Amino acid sequence: MTTLGVKGPVRIRREHAAVLVTFGLLVAMFAAGSIVYPAFGSGQVVVDLFIDNGFLLVIAIGMTFVILTGGIDLSVGAVAALSGMLCAFLLGQWHWPVAVVLPLVLLVGVGFGFGMGYVIHHFEIQPFIATLAGMFLARGLCFVISVDQISITHPFFTEWAQTRIPLGEETNLTPTVLIGLVVFAVAFWTLHYTRFGRAVYAIGGNDQSALLMGLPVARTRIRAYMVSGLCSALGGILFAFYTISASGLHEVGTELDAIAAVVIGGTLLTGGSGYVVGTVLGVMLLGTIQTILRFQGTLSSWWTRIAIGVLLLLFILLQRLLGSSRTRR
Amino acid sequence: MPGAVLEMIGVSKGFPGVRALADVDFRLFPGEIHALMGENGAGKSTLIKVLTGVYSADAGEVRLGGERVSVTGPQHAQTLGISTVYQEVNLCPNLTVAENVFIGREPSKAGAIRWREIRRRAAELLTRFGVDVDPGARLDTCSLAIQQLVAIVRAVDISAKVLILDEPTSSLDRDEVEQLFTVMRRLRDDGVAILFVSHFLDQVYEVSDRMTVLRNGALVGEYQTARLSRIDLVGHMTGRTLSTLEQLHVRDETARVQAEPVLKADGVGRKGAIAPFDLEIHPGEVVGLAGLLGSGRTEAARLMFGADVADSGTVALGGASVPLRSPNAAIQHGVAFCPENRKSEGLIEDLTVGENIVLALQAANGWLRPLSQAKRQELVGRYMTALRITPADPDMPARNLSGGNQQKVLLARWLITQPKLLILDEPTRGIDVGAKAEIQKLVVSLAEDGVAVLFVSAELEEVLRISHKIEVLRDRRLIAEIGNAASVTPEGILEIIANGTTS
Amino acid sequence: MKAVTGHRLFWPAAVLVVMLLANLVVTPGFFSIQVRNGHLYGSLIDILLLGSPLMLIALGMTVVIATGGIDLSVGAVVAISGALACYLISGQEDQGAVTGVLVAVALALVLSAALGFWNGLFVARVGIQPIIATLILMVAGRGVAQLITSGKNINVNSPPYKLIGGGYWLTLPFAVIVVAVVVALTGLAVRRTALGMLLEAIGGNAEASRLVGIRSRRLVVLAYTFCGLCAGIAGLMISSNISTADGNNAGLWMELDAILAVVIGGTALTGGRFTLAGTILGALVIQTLSTTIYTTGVPSQVTLVFKAVVVAIVCLIQSPAFRAKVFRRRARPEAPPPASPAAADVEVNA
Amino acid sequence: GSGSGGSGGSGGDDGKITLGFSQVGSESGWREANTKSIKESAQTAGIDLKFSDAQQKQENQIATIRSYIQQKVDVIAFSPVVVTGWDAVLKEAQAAKIPVVLTDRAVDSDPSLYVSFLGSDFVKEGEAIGDWTLNEYKDATGPVNIVQLEGTVGSAPAIDRKKGFESKIASNPNLKVIASQSGDFTRADGKEVMTAILKANPKIDLLFAHNDDMGIGAIQAIEEAGKKPGVDIKIVTIDAVHDGMQALADGKINFIAECSPLLGDQLMEIVKQIKAGQPVEKRIITKETTFTQQQASEALPSRKY
Ligand SMILES: Nc1ncnc2c1ncn2[C@@H]1O[C@H](COP(=O)(O)OP(=O)(O)OP(=O)(O)O)[C@@H](O)[C@H]1O
Ligand SMILES: Nc1ncnc2c1ncn2[C@@H]1O[C@H](COP(=O)(O)OP(=O)(O)OP(=O)(O)O)[C@@H](O)[C@H]1O
Ligand SMILES: [Mg+2]
Ligand SMILES: [Mg+2]
After folding, report:
1. Which domains does chain B have, with CATH numbers?
2. Which of B402, B428, B436 to mutate to test ligand 1, by most ligand atoms within 8 A of the CB atom?
3. What is the pTM of this model?
4. Residue-wise pLDDT tens digits, C196-244
5. Residues with CB under 5 A from ligand 3 (ion)
6. Which architecture does CATH list for A12-324?
7. Are A328 and B138 in contact (CB under 8 A)?
């Protein structure tokens, strides 16, 4: 059925219900954490969730676009690392001004996205491989630029890293969080209020049909990868703000975190269905699990992993149990 | 007569192993409804796809308003003023009905899509076409007929110079077809050139002004509809004089077998889909389901197969009560089901034609008992010839077949299993005249051999022609059961539907 | 000629051959195979031997991908299987006892298959997206492997166990024989029975498969179980080859390599049609690539760029769309301009 | 200190010191020995340990440290995943008046941001190997072909050990690194890389592996190629974990520079000193040494890991 509950002015779609269930579970998990660990319940812990995962949030939002078209982008972590590396290198070695470096780095991210999108669409290379090659390339370029880890000493970065926006007595934000929220808002708006966004959904639903309906499939698909590239580059810059350093080893495995966040947020890997709000919740969930384990603080490395797995499992099972009604066809 | 708005000259298109179009000329004038005719696989859809740039032609040219154009794709075609409904419903299943109507040309203000406007205009358009559907419903929750209507609404609303409709009526019932024709005529009078493909000769004769006939990818000729008799048309299409078109006289032979019913449904229903109903089908009996679009025929058929699980009632197959929790359970009891939406529920496009044909039998056998190569070839060969599936290459991927041939593949798939009860949901959808008659004959002869058939079709005449008993549905409720007799006419059935009474 | 280049295995095979030839140019003795210590010895043998685990994992992955799924947990299963086997063997009095090794191997394989089964249940029964269902085991599974090894390397000194991944039999590497047998059996199982077709049907169109009565849940569970089993055998090989179970690193990121091998081999990630031979070629291409990097001495900091370039070239060459575009561009001047023939003689009753 | 220990801390009893420790991950046996040592020492020292594994991710580690600040632990210690990028979070810790101790790996932040750094010096380890090599081949007349198995590309130990080693051997032009590949610090990769390198290079005199595990993998490769490790090809490694020492004692490795994971006791000592308000040294190098084959046989029976 299309609608749950009564057919009235307020209708809750099933997909919306899934997001709500996910949100509810997240809150429940947080509440449980606060009961078990007293210091857990503070506002700063919530804010920290955004601070510590800000870059992942931005990257995952970009990933959402790609997954909605039915593709996948494995290069995000590497492109983010490359952006950090470029920042560090251009600022530190070549002493270029920040106002040039940051746009340039974003452009490089977009360029990566464009390249992969172009190859995926026009040469019909499977997204998995095209972006895997992109991942190798971006990470490889990091090491070509510098094998060493580089500190970023540019005052813009160091100051940014320490800027705190007070938010009540004990809580404060970083600008990163605000950027993350802006990216979220823009992404939401793009997906739901622009033709490009709707075409992204249409392609994910059925790209052949989208083509026959006269939608600009090539442009849309390539742009989705460009958005992901842009978000990765931005995520890389945010990460550089966070760590004021760059290294080819940064953000290894981030692509899996991002994909996991998107999919846990209810987006279908086959494309065409999902919301960026879900992605935000997915990132929050991954962050919350980590936070709980940090507060637990007695687990060995392997029990940590097992615990992450079990918590993830519980969450997904509950999400599945509560969030799904029987599909009709 | 003004100059042709659209002209195709010497167009050829080949696919590996198939010559789909060979040096075809085609003209379309403004203010005419032009029917493109041909058997299944004649090249109609290919011609249309070349025209809209989905395929690039191997040779030949397209002229629009006298000027040579090279259409790069559907998007380009749209900007050139060609609006198309392709044969298989090509919409996005994950979007709402309203969005499917407007996507790509959403009304927007300052770059932002105006959703309210979209919903309002979509609702307006849909009501104008008499489509009773919530514009906010996801498209994949709508029946195929609704989807087809949505595609038409979309194409028509793009006010274009040329409107192409490739078998738009294959799932529609009379009323909807009439609605569509009214719109088509109005557009024609406004000077739009309309290209129309259909296998319903009645419809073609009712609405078209001229027609072009294709056979085996080659042009046969261009005719004025009024001056071409049906017999001649069929002759041009098939290249032979058709004897199979003669009326089947089934309805008199109401020799119903008084044996144990193959299927006995007792109060079977499913919330939101169809109200509980009773149904009996005996061996050798053809039971037709009649009703308007969205009346619940498909839903009823699916319940008999376990494709959906009923939430009330019991089904007895061959005398024993069987819980139909999955299609598998039904298949084990000799039930076969040919779904209406061949693209999403029937065909497996990746597999070859041969594999698609043996799939059901193989699934029933289990993977451990594969059919021997020889047996497979024999079966596939036999049914491909019997149903005249072209091209006759069992190793061709099923996606490459023309729409009608794909439908035949699905039929073959189930015939091979030699079912006791065959459920056919719109089995003649998109099938050409000759083949349709053959399929009807096939159904009749199957029934003579003792197979029970549940037959769903939007075409009342067809239902009447071959069924022994007709179940009439309205508003997802079975309202009447009538034995078929000479006195029963399509009009009579429509009346029953309208009045909700048994005559 | 067309028939050869048109074959779906032509391009992966061509790529492999070119890569091997490139090696021959850089390292003249690359193709030489000698008999040393009673067994074959040479770079080509190394590629086969070291590529064995990847071939197996990719084999299992192919079957899963055919159903439209994916299995991210293979790397973790590799670690678990090796860890369990070595843990059991290292606890035995006589590590060289064949029965003891057999028991350990059997238990490890049963556990691997069980883990695959678990994945399958989640995907087919609970209906969780494959990538997430297997991600859970990917994360937790490595923890389990570390739990078994207590985070350390477990060394074993057991000649029979060593045979699996590092030994030779009739001068041939035993692992290669195992792969050959598994591939042959799998090939028989999928192509001589109807299994392959049914799996392809499920991957091609799940709903249609349900409606023709394919018991897809069982088959999907079977596919994941098989994948787990293959990963388990690969895990035994990897740990046996170095006589050590490394719960932390064994099989790390191997899932990506396996998926890459499958895709290079010509199987689409969207499910449906699959080719086992292609997958084996794909795995060999990847292994050859690593060996090439090591033998030709590509500096470690540019290794990844090198890999990226090779993978990109391999995929582009394989892509019909790419070839079509490149060829058409070159062929265009030769093709005669489409002359519009005179109006065909058509009867027009206008 | 702020004296807030225990009040807001989770589970800290009065008077008991709470130490938050963020470990790099669990990538090797060495790391595990390191973790174990810290856990055991904390227990015997009566310190309440909060342990967290960062799975080799700096972002996790930063978040962990910030979480320790939230939990108001008394002292924070961590083994940094990477050298760079700690300023901000260390400043946060400083602002919260929580002293920080680094273990095992250094950071490049301003030294005022942490109280002490306890750990090995990777460059020195590389240099120790370099010294041995110079000495071993001081009489060599022809070229000495050296193969280097590097650690994970971009990781601090790999970079520093390579730097230390190569800076030393540069003084003898006969010493030539003919192949240098990453073996990712693992046994399997060490073996695979060495197998390939052996095929491509017929004459290898010395193998330098950045850790014991890769060295042991390479030994297997060398043996399978029909050569005698330690004799036909000399092998030097770093770490001195048990397996490495065994191989050294067996004559398959020629020399090992120790990199001790057992910093637990020293760390707890420092933590107690900090809490007692005593001054601690900024840089404490772990007690490390080098081993020859002879020394290895002697030391082996009493080795803890
Ligand atoms: N993509 C393709 N690849 C290979 N062959 C194709 C492809 N598309 C169509 N064909 C072949 O081209 C011929 C013409 O097909 P087309 O779809 O145009 O027929 P049609 O006239 O529309 O038939 P129908 O009435 O059944 O829809 C058929 O033989 C078909 O098998
Ligand atoms: N998933 C669904 N959710 C909500 N409504 C649905 C869903 N599927 C179908 N319907 C509606 O249920 C009604 C019955 O549909 P059904 O497909 O059974 O009609 P039908 O009698 O077979 O007619 P036809 O096939 O010609 O549309 C239709 O109004 C249809 O729009
Ligand atoms: Mg057609
Ligand atoms: Mg229907």
Report:
1. 6-242 (3.40.50.300), 243-334+420-503 (3.40.50.300), 346-418 (no CATH)
2. B402
3. 0.91
4. 999 999 999 999 999 999 999 999 999 999 999 999 999 999 999 999 9
5. B 45, 87, 403
6. Orthogonal Bundle (1.10)
7. no
